[in-house]
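Re: the 351-residue chain
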Amino acid sequence: MTSLKNLFKSKANPLISLLIVLSLLNFLATIFVYSTGIKKFADINEIISNTRELCISGKASNDDLDSAAEKLYSDLEELSYFSSKLTHAVLTTCRAITADEKNFYAIDSLELEVLKEENQLKSGFRILLFVSVMTILLTILTLAIQGQERAGFSLHSSSDSILFRNGIFKGLLIATLCALTNFVLTTISGATKIPLYLDSIATIAAAFLGGLVPAILTAMLTNGLMSLINKAPYLFAICHIMTAIFSATVFYAAEKKNPKRITICAFLFAGLLSAISNGIAGSAMSIAFCGGRPDVFNRDMPSAGIYFVTQQFDLALYWAGIALNFADKTIAAVISFVVCKSSRIRQIFLQ
């Protein structure tokens, strides 16, 4: 009951309000793109159906068939970026139509490939909806408990150095344990198809428990393991290091402002800065590596779905990148706060 009163009557922290507004905007924009994408697929399916009827009629002239093949190729060209099988099906169908072949198997194959791609792109939209709703719920929960005892914790002493909080040995121990934790979590995420990275939860915790250097070491070790075992590009460690730097800086400043009280807002602010920096830097590196080619979307359905609707390559990567990082880092911030709030954890690493 107290939480509900706090939610509706208390003045919201500006940071939490900002997180909720950003999540709502992303949710509404995703709804718009989703509905537009469904309409585009309905139009594509209608074109295929009309083409089939034209071929079945047997009354179409060669010019009509050529025109139908050109329209089919033109309207499906932007969709065929995402699948080599779909590209082959489009070309096979167009050749069959132009040659006046009653090759309905080609049209059937084309319909099947379009359906597969439609389901894939819709899954990308659903991922965006899922992460935006999840972020909204987390920030509303935070809003409900802000100002209460469980929304923060007290420190017996503040850190005098941003580099190492409690010495080099503990810092190295924290970095090792946190890197292993990150690697296990991101491996589980990949194996279970969870639409989150989950590779920086322990990095934020390391920034608070160990300081800047242990957090950076955590980031580098995590990406090193991912590169060695999961074959992930190591250059994206730059994004992870940004998370470490922003988190350590935010926690150091928060302690200086109020040495005896750390709230969940400090963790959320660290997550927000990390999400923005990771989303922008990661998307920029993806664009630089793929040279502006849409085939970068082969395993990135949220970006592919946005690109299919907007036909804006950079917008698709930045939007999806920031949105996914926004959800991922919000969850990382909340979980790392819960971990660091544990008196047992603080007793082991902060004393």
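Strands lie at 152-153, 262-263.
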